[in-house]
Amino acid sequence: MRIAIYGGSFNPPHLGHAEAARAAVTALKPDRFLIVPTNIPPHKELEENSPGPEARLELCRLAFREIPDVEVSDLEIRREGKSYTADTVDILRGEFPGAELCLVMGTDMFLSFRSWYRWQYLLESCTLAVLSREEDDRRELETFKAALEAEHGARVLLIPHTPLPMSSSEIREKLRLGLGADCLSPEVYGCVIRCGFYGAKPDLSWLRRMTAPYLSADRVAHVAGVESTAVRLAAHWGEDPDRAAVAGILHDITKALKREKQLKLCEKYGIMLDNAERENPALLHARTGAELARELFGVSDAVYDAIRWHTTGKPDMTVLEKIIYLADYTEPTRNFSGVEELRALCLEDLDRAMALGLKMSIEDLRERGKPIFHDTMDAYNWYKKYN
Ligand code: DGI
Ligand code: FE
Ligand code: FE
Prior knowledge:
By secondary structure, this protein is an alpha/beta fold. It has 2 domains: 2-166, Rossmann fold (3-Layer(aba) Sandwich); 202-386, Hypothetical protein af1432 (Orthogonal Bundle). It is built from 20 helices and 6 strands. It has helices at 15-28, 53-63, 75-78, 85-95, 107-111, 119-125, 138-152, 168-176, 186-195, 204-211, 220-237, 241-250, 259-269, 275-279, 284-297, 301-308, 319-330, 339-348, 350-367, 374-383; strands at 2-8, 32-37, 70-72, 100-106, 126-132, 155-160. Strands 3-2-1-4-5-6 form a 6-stranded parallel beta sheet, with helices on both faces. It is elongated. 39% of the residues are buried. One fe (iii) ion (FE) binds at residues 251-252, 255, 285, 310-311, 328.
């Protein structure tokens, strides 16, 4: 019986890890292949927003689930403190007496092997399976392999493998900039964004793709228009354009849902409704949209609130809230009379634009014989002083 062990911090596990595992499975054909994420000890400085051990385990399960016969093991995560491979090997030897244990590692780990804790014990108990890069110095590897074999009776297998050009630390940095979606499996990336790990900002093209199925055909141009208008206003008013883009992309995410579904979502999220809201499903999508955006994409409170208040407005809004309200009202496909004046005002004074927008909205509702919702009225009563 052959058991392969592929350890690492997997913070986060990326496509390069998955590729390496695939190459090792193919070359070693082990009976069991264990991915063993290390426990990152609590005293080690962890970057802010790093996933905890349990979450990292879950990310690994997602990252490696496409590879047949690979198991993610919580052996080291369950063990407190620093994770020594030798301790893990002790346990596996006890559990699987007589099995051949293969330690899967990259070239750098291999060449520094003599600095590992209890490395001689590891050489006695395990075969080393080294994923060697094409650009590696072949002779250096062969020489080191021969030395370990001659001096310590080691068993070393060199597995040719060209790794994908990526590293976890580089990816963490990219994620903070709204990049890196192409380095992770879709499931891992989705989980990172939803949970806000590594301070990740969503990749906007990924977000557009993910939200497309939620939009009815006649909403697509509107939502794209809100996004671009919100980004422009954000740049103009010193607000974060990425945040504005996220709010714009997500603001109508539940608009297509029928009243019944809206009410179901309100129940699910514990949203309390008054009679006016219950009677007017057009008002619900701002509330359910904010909740769904948080559940699916882990949006910040600022983005949540911008979506939450985009339909009615409210007194004393944040810059982002005003931007989304006004972008929704003035994006390029809107063509009601007075829209040009409102567009111009958005670039001059956001509060006056709110006053005008709310006034026009209320006039329009009155003309159509619709009741004015109290949030809309409260908002207007706050902003009318800027008129
Ligand atoms: O979702 P959009 O169509 O892009 O725009 P929106 O979120 O502003 O929603 C507009 C709808 O909301 C429109 O059908 C009118 C309705 N609405 C907004 N404020 C009020 C309102 N309806 C009533 N009855 N009262 C309001 O105060
Ligand atoms: Fe809306
Ligand atoms: Fe909208």
